[in-house]
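Sample 3 of the quickstart, ligand iron/sulfur cluster:
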Amino acid sequence: MRSQNRIHKAEKLINPVSHIKKIFVEQGVADLPYTQEILKRAATIPVEIINGHYVPGLDANQYPRNLTKGKQNLLLCRNLGHFFKPCPATREYRCCDYQVINIGLNCPMDCVYCILQAYLNNPWLSFFVNVDDLLRELEAAFAKNPDRFWRIGTGEFTDSMALDQLTGLSQVLVPFIGRQSRAVLELKTKSAAIANLQGLDHQDRTIVAWSLNSQPIMREEELRTATLDERLQAAAQCAAWGYRLAFHFDPIIDHPGWQEGYATTIKELFRQVPSDKIAWISLGALRFLPPLKQIANSRFPKSRFFSEEFIVGLDGKHRYFRSRRVDLYQHLYRLLKPLADPKTCIYLCMESDEIWREVMGFAPEDHGSLAVMLERAVF
Ligand code: SF4
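Result:
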């Protein structure tokens, strides 16, 4: 009971939905029962029905200057494209064969390094309410490849749980994936907004995941996100509800005191969360598309970490020099390995075989592939 109270207090403090000042609804979806459900939950947030895709008062031509204001406005609309596609990984590095469900765009939280600042081209948040189309698309993909193992995430173009208390999407997706025999859903977040996950028939097919970082980075570079304690308390609560967990140290950022910062986070992780519930832990050093640096510097002029030296990787993204990346990874891996459950898959996100061997002593192919390693960690 005590831990329940703590979770509810955390949600009251950092529920990202509280940042939304206005909801816009595309006229064509206004009468959908799911839209109406969301508007009922929105209670006191003002609502405006609009024609078309553009939120009035937020000029897409002024992006990203109006991104801070844009994050206070949510558009409920129809996804006219595909919901389900492979993660936009790059051929040059080891990827994990992830599939992405595009549930919406943009995020009410605001991380200095967020790649979405450079990917998106309008400032508001979008959430796609034609969820029946999404489920139909998933069913068709599963039926077409019945033997394939599907690892699916919703956190590619938004945070998986940031709007969940408004949208209730987890209550649809988690039981749906629970009914599939060859799929797992990963819900990745920096919030502690997990209340909707309680009591769902997840069938051990949903993995709730948090991005973690050194606390100075979490405090200074991840605005409106949950604190380390709030994230770990939420994770412990999900474990108590029977969910398996995952953690992503991504982006690992070189900053003064980084060794101690990451060591403290890792110590706290294993102090607060049962290690045998952790399916996987990923490590990924900071990488970014060149335009992100300029956007982030203009929005967050006090941030310093983009001023380090970087090389341009084979995928066109800026990264730390190889020796620096190896230093960062080796430090975290040495701390994680003795504390992690032997079944937990610790992996590098978007790195070459050479770096894998230097850090871990093997490459994914030695164990089948990264996708196989992750599949084994779940089944
Ligand atoms: S929580 Fe994720 S999606 Fe949201 S701003 Fe931060 S990095 Fe971007």
